[in-house]
Design goal:
Involved in mRNA degradation. Catalyzes the phosphorolysis of single-stranded polyribonucleotides processively in the 3'- to 5'-direction. Its cofactor is Mg(2+). Keywords: Coiled coil, Cytoplasm, Magnesium, Metal-binding, Nucleotidyltransferase, RNA-binding, Transferase. Belongs to the polyribonucleotide nucleotidyltransferase family. This protein is an alpha+beta fold. The protein has 5 domains: about 5-225, GHMP Kinase, N-terminal domain (Ribosomal Protein S5, domain 2, 2-Layer Sandwich), CATH 3.30.230; about 240-305, Arc Repressor Mutant, subunit A (Orthogonal Bundle); about 325-540, GHMP Kinase, N-terminal domain (Ribosomal Protein S5, domain 2, 2-Layer Sandwich), CATH 3.30.230.70; about 555-615, Ribosomal Protein S8, Chain: A, domain 1; about 625-695, Beta Barrel (OB fold (Dihydrolipoamide Acetyltransferase, E2P)), CATH 2.40.50.140. The protein contains 16 helices and 29 strands. The strands form 6 sheets. An 8-stranded antiparallel beta sheet has the order 8-7-9-10-21-20-18-19, sandwiched between helices. The longest helix has 29 residues, at about 195-225. The protein is elongated, with a radius of gyration of 33 Å.
Length: about 700
């Protein structure tokens, strides 16, 4: 049965159509917000997937370029692999919804969001987020929803609910908040040094809007929602837990996990696993789920130690940061390098500078964003966690971590006018034991400064964790979580910023939301921690270097009359290519006449700049030029004084004495100094050699 539901959201109609399309999916919502149209579907397999110990959820955000009237680029002319924006959007949808599925559910679930039309006033990402939640809520898939999501922008200190593409791009805040009925369940933010108090206000402004959306979803579910289906539970049997505790008492498990050395802990758990495998040799059904059972036992042990005993696995205090180390210039010949170490988490970041022609071109749904000048890439090789597997390129996690560190540093980067370079930072994970994305932020900040990028302020980042009890008041926030506390805890709350405010937030949780006191404490703790971390970073490098490094390209910028761009480029690029060939530089010219000359040889760069200046100069009598004789005629010689630019020296203007033949004085290829006499009757530039002042020769 077809039903249509409408509410007003941020001054625009949000319409949800159910039962019109995709009726074979478990749940489908045809979403319209303004003219933005997204089809969101939720489907689940009939049976659990065999042999897995996790919930197999897949979230897709499909960008169809017909939605903005574009034909895809490339040879195939069809959409290919997901863009970075699509991957990041999928992750933002996944993170708040995953905790609301049953923990023992192992059926495959796919949430697909297909963008079919884009209204620049209504961003498709928020429509897909809401569509995924609605499609799942009305389906028969077990889900403890509803949840809702709202985006908040900020211009001139004023919050904007669900901003347009233009407002999102130009504002000082890009915040996405997901909520359940009572609590915040996910936060994602990029910010231009927004103060902590202002950020908390923005988060709970979005939370209030989410409550109105949840009421709307409740109305939809009441009318068209399906009963939730039964499923095969994959929970560990209680009798198995009891048997494990008889063989490995809680005190023994505490001793196994209570260490700050990841390798030691893993060896302890391996020995416990071998002991249990031997004990359960005749219980094949238990052996199949032994790994998950041991994981659950470790989790219960660690959570109890932290929450009840206030003991962390590595012995630190609740608000203590692991040992820190920072250094720069460890990699020779690159443009900038730095390494940041926090406990067993270690990141080496390398910065590369290039002319603006090297910016990344983007083919996406935002018509205003066609290139990206700053690129941050994050790599996570298997050796960083002591494992072995082949490298298959970056996955969604790597792309997400790189984007977070990129977002953290964007607010402090100089403008193109101040620093006309494309910038790429690559974070190589040498060692991982908790929050490598925050270590990437710290390492990248130092690497940028070492490369001579004049960033406005230092940026650092840290992550806080959480362990909760039975009530909202029973919780403990942990500063600087390591891997074990991340795996077994309830929250990974990452915050980056300067001394003035926040530049990025990414919050993941495994429970059904956070109370306001937890959010406020986490934000306060991360501020205290990043200020401490900055002092360590300053010990390695306190401010950006005044110049780019020896091996980095140098750039000279000059401004020319836009009407002269054609003169510099020449017919079919002949002139500009000749300048490049003669000097070995790279040249970029923008439509407004800004010319960037890039190279490593200062003399060659100056030579290229001089050529461009000569080409774009309006010639006047008395100007002095140096040139080359390129043609000899009976009546005189032609001198090229810049690529594609030449003038004539009449035979009477070659020497002070009378000469009968030009060849008596000049030969092809001679380097000569000439003075401009203006233009002759034919409009050609006229030169003289004999009238050059003595002090100009």
């Amino acid at each position: 049965m077809f039903k249509s539901f409408t509410m007003e959201l941020a001054g625009r109609p949000l319409t949800v159509e159910v039962g019109k399309v995709a009726k074979q999916a478990n749940g489908a919502a045809f979403m319209k917000y303004g003219d933005t149209t997204v089809l969101s579907t939720a489907t689940a397999s009939d049976k659990p997937r065999d042999g897995i110990d996790f919930f197999p959820l897949s979230v897709e955000f499909e960008e169809k370029l017909y939605s903005v009237g574009k034909i895809p680029g490339g040879f195939n002319k069809r959409e290919g692999k997901a863009s970075e924006n699509a991957i990041l959007t999928s992750r933002v949808i996944d993170r708040p919804m995953r905790p609301l599925f049953p923990k023992d559910y192992r059926n495959d679930v796919t949430l697909n969001n297909m963008v079919m039309s884009v209204d620049p006033a209504c961003r498709p990402e928020i429509v897909a987020m809401l569509g995924a939640a609605i499609a799942t809520c009305i389906s028969d898939i077990p889900f403890d929803g509803p949840c809702a999501m709202t985006q908040v922008g900020m211009i001139d200190g004023e919050f904007i609910i669900n901003p347009s593409q233009e407002q999102w791009k130009k504002g000082d805040l890009n915040l996405t908040v997901a909520s359940t009925r009572e609590k915040v369940i996910m936060i994602e933010a990029g910010a231009n040094e927004v103060p902590e108090a202002k950020m908390i206000d923005a988060i709970y402004t979005a939370h209030e809007v989410n409550q109105t959306i949840i009421k709307f979803i409740d109305e939809i579910v009441a009318e068209v929602g399906k009963p939730k289906h039964d499923y095969t539970s994959c929970a560990i049997p209680e009798e198995m837990f009891a048997a494990i505790k008889d063989i490995v008492p809680p005190a023994e498990m505490e001793e196994a996990v209570f260490t700050d050395e990841k390798q030691v802990r893993e060896e302890n758990i391996r020995q416990i696993t071998e002991k249990l495998e031997e004990a359960f040799a005749e219980k094949e059904e238990w052996l199949e789920i032994l790994g998950e059972a041991i994981y659950q036992y470790q989790k219960k042990t660690v959570r109890k130690m932290i929450l009840k005993d206030h003991k962390r696995p590595d012995g630190r205090a609740i608000d203590q940061i692991r040992p820190l180390a920072a250094e720069v210039d460890l990699i020779p010949r690159v443009h900038g390098s730095a390494m940041f170490t926090r406990g067993q988490t270690q990141i080496c970041d390398v910065v590369t500078l290039a002319p603006l022609s090297e910016v990344q071109k983007i083919d996406g749904l935002d018509e205003n964003e066609v290139s990206k000048r700053y690129m941050h890439h994050y790599n996570f090789p298997s050796y960083s966690v002591g494992e072995t597997k082949p490298s298959r390129g970056p996955g969604r996690r790597e792309i997400g971590h790189g984007a977070l560190a990129e977002r953290a540093l964007l607010p402090v980067l100089p403008s193109e006018e101040e620093f006309p370079y494309a910038i790429r930072a690559v974070s190589e994970t040498f060692e991982s034991n908790g929050s490598t994305s925050m270590a990437s932020t710290c390492a990248s900040c130092m690497s940028l400064m070492a490369a001579g990028v004049p960033i406005k302020k230092m940026v650092a980042g840290i992550s806080c964790g959480l362990v909760t009890g039975e009530t909202d008041d029973d919780y403990l926030v942990l500063t600087d979580i390591q891997g074990l506390e991340d795996f077994f805890g309830d929250m990974d709350f990452k915050v980056t910023g300067t001394t003035e405010g926040i530049t990025a937030i990414q919050m993941d949780i495994k429970i059904h939301g956070l109370t306001r006191p937890i959010v406020e404490e986490a934000i306060r703790r991360t501020r205290e921690a990043r200020l401490f971390i900055m002092e360590v970073m300053k010990g390695a490098i306190a401010e950006p270097r005044k110049e780019v490094g020896k091996y980095a390209p140098k750039i000279i910028r000059i401004q020319i009359d836009p009407a002269k761009i054609g003169d510099v480029v020449g017919q079919r690029g002949k002139t500009i290519n000749e300048i490049i060939e003669r000097t070995g530089v790279k040249i970029d010219i923008t439509d407004d006449g800004a010319v960037s000359v890039c190279g490593v040889d200062a003399d060659a760069m100056q030579k290229a700049v001089e050529m461009i200046r000569i080409i774009t100069t309006d010639f006047e009598a008395g100007q002095i030029f140096k040139g080359t004789v390129i043609s000899i005629k009976e009546f005189g010689a032609f001198v090229e004084f810049a690529p594609g630019k030449e003038g004539m020296v009449h035979i009477s203007k070659i020497a002070k004495e009378r000469i009968n033949h030009v060849e008596d004085v000049l030969t092809l290829g001679d380097k000569v100094t000439v003075v401009c006499l203006g233009k002759d009757k034919m409009g050609r530039i006229s030169f003289s050699i004999k009238d050059v002042p003595a002090d100009a020769k």
